[in-house]
Automatic annotation (TrEMBL):
Keywords: Oxidoreductase. Transmembrane segments: none annotated. This is NADP-dependent oxidoreductase domain-containing protein. GO terms for molecular function: oxidoreductase activity. The lineage of its organism: Eukaryota, Sar, Stramenopiles, Ochrophyta, Pelagophyceae. Pfam families: Aldo_ket_red. Residues 34-362 form the NADP-dependent oxidoreductase domain. CDD domains: AKR_Tas-like. It comes from the Eukaryota.
Length: 371
């Protein structure tokens, strides 16, 4: 109990100082090392609750980095698509736009969200799709530019969102890398976008984007937004860490889902988690958790957190915040209290002994959510 009280006292003092900031790749974007994710606003959260979170994140905690997407909130559906952007627009009224780094995303290829485009076509990453996506996003956001535009997932086939190995039989025709970059160049030249990045990308994709940019004088990606957490590590660490390093492609990692969809918070420890818990909202995600070794890994990390007087969420978030190849970690919350806990975790002291213990657990549970 004493250790927890001392930790909370240190957090209060530390929060008097703003969260440190990092430069993204070779861009001029300097962002807080904690980024406010927004994908619940308009579905799990009301617009007013989203505005309250933004006020707290920016005014109290000093965050300057906000991440949204054209398809938010999630689970995405035609009836609510764009509500997240409208939440941000309401908050931006009367604010100094230049004090905020605003990131959004254009959808990758998917036949399941054909209502995203005005003519009902399947979204792709063509120049026409990019331009339509950006124009619609700017209108919803109530601003005339975004600081960072990311390709939400690749136009080509890649294993996504928990899929395991690459299956060549699923390969399909895709928009060429240089054509995607030319589309991105067009919105940059129009003053609608400052910099570009990718998301849910692979080492091959990062290398090709950088190769074409450097060879053909096209926009260079400055960031990659990929899932990264205590139970989703190897996908990034076994290839992308090298590729994205400043010595090579110099692409900054924006780590999303640092709590693995909430699993690492401990909220799913019981056999009857809350019905409004995030994994219950995504078909198949809860099954992936329950039918894999993820639950065992989470239990071990929770026990380790307890040894150091931390909550499971604090341990998982601090580990992610402290990784040297993570430029900014995207956190989401459905309440102001949860948001506070997530930001305060930045100031937790995680000793070397805890890091060593974490790595011992990881050696036994690599990719535990993959069946």
């Amino acid at each position: 109990m004493l250790s927890i009280l001392l930790w909370r006292t240190s957090c209060v003092a530390a929060l008097q100082q703003p969260i440190p900031r990092a430069r993204l790749g070779q861009s001029e974007l300097v962002v807080s090392e904690v980024c406010l994710g927004t994908m619940t606003w308009g579905k799990q959260n009301t617009i007013d609750e989203g505005v309250a979170q933004l006020n707290q994140a920016v005014d109290e905690f000093g965050l300057n980095f906000i991440d949204t997407a054209e398809m938010y909130p999630v689970p995405t559906e035609a009836a609510t698509q764009g509500e997240t952007d409208r939440t941000i627009a309401k908050w931006l009224e009367g604010r100094n736009r230049e004090e905020v780094v605003l990131a959004t995303k254009v959808c990758g290829a998917s036949s399941r969200i054909d209502w995203v485009r005005s003519d009902g076509r399947t979204p792709r990453v063509t120049p026409a799709d990019i331009e339509e996506s950006v124009d619609a996003s700017l209108e919803r956001l109530g601003t005339d530019y975004v600081d960072l535009l990311q390709i939400h997932w690749p136009d080509r086939y890649v294993p996504l969102f928990g899929s395991d190995s690459y299956d060549p039989s699923n390969e399909r025709e895709a928009v060429p890398f240089d054509e995607q970059l030319r589309g991105l160049a067009k919105v940059i030249e129009a003053g609608k976008v400052r910099y570009v990045g990718v998301s849910n990308e692979t080492p091959y994709g990062v290398c090709k984007f950088v190769e074409h940019a450097e060879r053909e004088g096209l926009p260079r990606i400055c960031s990659i937004q990929n899932s990264y957490s205590l139970i989703v590590r190897s996908d990034f660490e076994n290839g992308l860490t090298e590729v994205c390093s400043p010595r090579h492609c110099d692409v900054s990692l924006l780590a999303y889902s640092p709590l693995a969809g909430g699993i690492l918070s401990g909220k799913y420890a019981s056999d009857d988690p809350p019905q409004n818990a995030r994994l219950n909202l995504f078909p198949g995600f809860m099954d992936r958790y329950l039918n894999s070794r993820a639950r065992e890994a989470v239990d071990e990390y929770a026990a380790l957190a307890n040894q150091y007087g931390l909550s499971p969420a604090q341990l998982a978030l601090k580990w992610c915040y402290a990784r040297p190849h993570v430029s900014s970690t995207i956190i989401g919350a459905t309440s102001l209290g949860q948001l506070r806990e997530n930001v305060e975790a930045y100031h937790v002291d995680l000793p070397d002994s805890a890091l060593s213990a974490i790595n011992q657990v990881y050696k036994r549970f690599r990719d535990p959510s993959k069946v």
